[in-house]
Inverse folding.
């Protein structure tokens, strides 16, 4: 009878874990719809709020700062209070900030609002990753993480397609206010529909008895720090490419803005496939996260190196080829990397491990594009900057190489 009850509980938990993936997928679609939507509405926001280009860009810098500042505290809170409270608070902050933005007319208050919007996003990112680590064993965990991450792609696609149409019917303040109520409603729904993982044998549910200093023990691990450094380089590559590829294709290879944007969209689409595909391979074929990251780094290095040698006479099919392969590697790594970080830090506190890695890796997002642009100005060419990105991808493989075949050891305690 005990075995039968245990089996039924296992089946119910397995089914509910995929419902958790659905909730997290929706959460990512909502927050990124808002994030990307603010960029889509940029021309209207700049005009009504009387912002120049630098001031408009500074809004998103404030959002990034808020996100970075919340990630470590969110990780600690996830370990101690559970995912439900952190995710719920994150969406209350996102919804409240967006609502205040829809009625705000003060320049100063807008910067504060964007900062708090970033805080909420940081809470959502960390708690969602922690939830996947909690609910899934090694086999299937990265796949679940990859599916969850595609919510970002959905949010970006929906905001890009719907908002330009709706803005011709409704005022932008009404649209942002409506979106804020969706975020607030999701916070309430999540509180009632989500339950924290309660298996007492699961290491991540023992963290509440740990002292705070014990939660930071992962930082002493060479494996943990090497994978975190790899995350910095991966974000340097991803953000530099997405920032400058349209400019490169237009100014250097003489493609139209429309065609250049299409190649970038193709990379994003391939990236969505890569997030799920690489995750699936790491779960069921490689049965190892590190080997996948090593392969991604090596293939990505070759692709970006090939890009550096393209000319206006390069056949178009090669640009298609590069765009797809870069999307698969340079934009498809996120889920495998996140899963590995969670597994390495599992015994010492999943939340703080993920939160700290998010914080450090985001340095690549902040400094990567400006550094790439500085290289372009310094050498008056894109060739050396592209080769620099190829070197970054090669270093990802190098940093990860010493970890090969270890992820199953990290995960053994989770199964």
């Amino acid at each position: 009878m005990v075995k039968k009850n245990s089996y039924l509980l296992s089946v119910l938990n397995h089914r509910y874990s995929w419902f958790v993936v659905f909730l997290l997928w929706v959460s990512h679609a909502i927050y990124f719809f808002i994030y990307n939507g603010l960029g889509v509405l940029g021309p209207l926001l700049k005009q009504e709020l009387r912002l120049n280009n630098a001031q408009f860009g500074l809004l998103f810098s404030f959002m990034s700062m808020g996100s970075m500042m919340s990630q470590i505290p969110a990780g600690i809170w996830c370990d101690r209070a559970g995912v439900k409270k952190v995710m719920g608070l994150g969406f209350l902050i996102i919804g409240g900030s967006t609502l205040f933005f829809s009625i705000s007319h003060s320049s100063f208050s807008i910067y504060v609002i964007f900062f708090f919007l970033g805080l909420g996003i940081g809470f959502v990112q960390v708690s969602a990753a922690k939830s996947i680590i909690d609910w899934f064993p090694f086999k299937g965990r990265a796949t679940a993480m990859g599916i969850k991450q595609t919510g970002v792609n959905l949010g970006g696609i929906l905001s890009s397609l719907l908002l330009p149409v709706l803005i011709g019917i409704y005022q932008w303040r009404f649209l942002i206010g409506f979106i804020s109520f969706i975020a607030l409603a999701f916070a309430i729904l999540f509180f009632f529909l989500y339950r924290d993982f309660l298996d007492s044998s699961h290491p991540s549910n023992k963290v509440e008895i740990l002292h705070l200093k014990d939660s930071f023990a992962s930082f002493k691990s060479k494996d943990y720090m090497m994978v975190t450094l790899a995350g910095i380089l991966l974000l340097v590559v991803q953000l530099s490419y997405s920032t400058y590829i349209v400019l490169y294709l237009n100014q250097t290879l003489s493609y139209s803005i429309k065609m250049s944007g299409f190649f970038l969209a193709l990379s994003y689409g391939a990236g969505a496939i890569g997030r799920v595909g690489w995750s699936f391979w790491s779960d069921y074929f490689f049965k190892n996260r590190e080997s996948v990251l090593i392969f991604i780094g090596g293939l990505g290095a070759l692709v970006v190196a090939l890009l550096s040698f393209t000319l206006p006479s390069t056949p178009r099919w090669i640009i298609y080829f590069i765009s797809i392969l870069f999307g698969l590697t340079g934009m498809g790594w996120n889920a495998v990397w996140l899963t590995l970080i969670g597994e390495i830090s599992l015994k010492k506190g999943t939340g703080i491990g993920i939160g700290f890695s998010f914080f450090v890796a985001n340095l690549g997002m902040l400094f990567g594009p400006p550094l790439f642009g500085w290289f372009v100005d310094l050498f008056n060419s894109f060739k050396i900057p592209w080769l620099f990105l190829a070197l970054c991808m090669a270093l990802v493989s190098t940093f990860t190489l010493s970890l090969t075949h270890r992820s199953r050891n990290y995960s053994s305690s989770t199964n």
